[in-house]
Amino acid sequence: MKLTAFMMNLRWAFFLLSWACSSTQQQEINTTTTSRLPPGTSMPGKVLIVYLSRTNNTRALAEIIHKKLGGTLVALDLVAPYPANYQTTVQQVARENETGFLPPLKTKIDSIQRYDIVFVGFPTWGMQLPPPMKSFLRQYNLTGKTVIPFNSNGGYGIGSTFQTVKELCPKSHVLEGFTMRGGSERDGQLLVIQGDRAQEAERAIQNWLRTINLLK
Ligand SMILES: Cc1cc2nc3c(=O)[nH]c(=O)nc-3n(C[C@H](O)[C@H](O)[C@H](O)COP(=O)(O)O)c2cc1C
């Protein structure tokens, strides 16, 4: 009788141990897949594509995403636009980053709560997220939404931009972003994502949207 009770306890111990192990495994799987939507997800709800673009490279990427997925496309405009001069703009952005100044937005987005997926597009500025995009992410409540960053840059990459998006959207599901080399205003190269480069961008964006399970 005592032996039977011992065997029963042993079985329970095994059961609890294997349950604990499988639930840990499950958690690991969940945390490693959070940057994509689950495979087979049908387009989950309404899409908003918000972008900042000075020389139209990021805009070209935004338009491709819009062509693939539809939704609402919105350019971020400022109450006080940046100067036309590149160097003056670089200096102003550096000051804004130092002081944490958030430039007021002229663009207003009606009923942001209608959207489930928010793409946020921006160039790299001073290896950081441009201040106007920080303004947008601070001003609008994206809690519970899927947020997807995309970027163009002058050849030095995303810098801290994607990380800052995550930090400013702590209650959103931030997916794996897209980045591509754009222009280099410093060297007089303005819009370069056009013609063959636009076709290249379209192929790359299509692959990325498939990778994150937003496109079949
Ligand atoms: C103020 C300013 C700062 C920039 N800083 C960087 C940078 O740190 N790294 C980089 O790779 N490109 C930098 N660039 C270049 C832009 O990221 C690049 O040209 C981008 O494609 C511009 O996008 P847009 O055409 O949508 O404005 C900077 C451009 C500007 C205007």
Distance between the termini: 60 Å
CATH topology: Rossmann fold
> Radius of gyration, Cα only, in angstroms?
22 Å
Structural class: alpha/beta
- Relevant CATH superfamily: Flavodoxin domain
* Overall number of structural domains: 1
Secondary-structure element series: HEHEHEHEHEEH
- Largest beta sheet, briefly? 6 strands, parallel
Look at the structure and give the CATH class: Alpha Beta
The hetero compounds bound to this protein are:
flavin mononucleotide
Strand content: 5-15%
Q: How many DSSP E strands?
A: 6
Give an account of the 3D structure.
Strands 1, 2, 3, 4, 5 and 6 form a 6-stranded parallel β-sheet that branches. By secondary structure, this protein is α/β, with parallel strands linked by helices. Mean pLDDT is 88; it is low at 14-33. The protein has a single domain (41-211), classed as Flavodoxin domain (Rossmann fold, 3-Layer(aba) Sandwich). Helix content is 42%, strand content 14%. The protein contains 6 helices and 6 strands, in the order αβαβαβαβαββα. It has helices at residues 2-32, 57-69, 86-99, 131-139, 161-168, 196-211, and strands at 47-51, 72-75, 117-123, 146-153, 173-174, 178-181. Flavin mononucleotide binds at residues 53-59, 86, 89-90, 93, 123-127, 152-156, 182-185.
Note the main attributes of this structure:
single chain; 216 residues; alpha/beta; Rossmann fold; six-stranded parallel beta sheet; 6 strands; 42% helix; globular; binds flavin mononucleotide
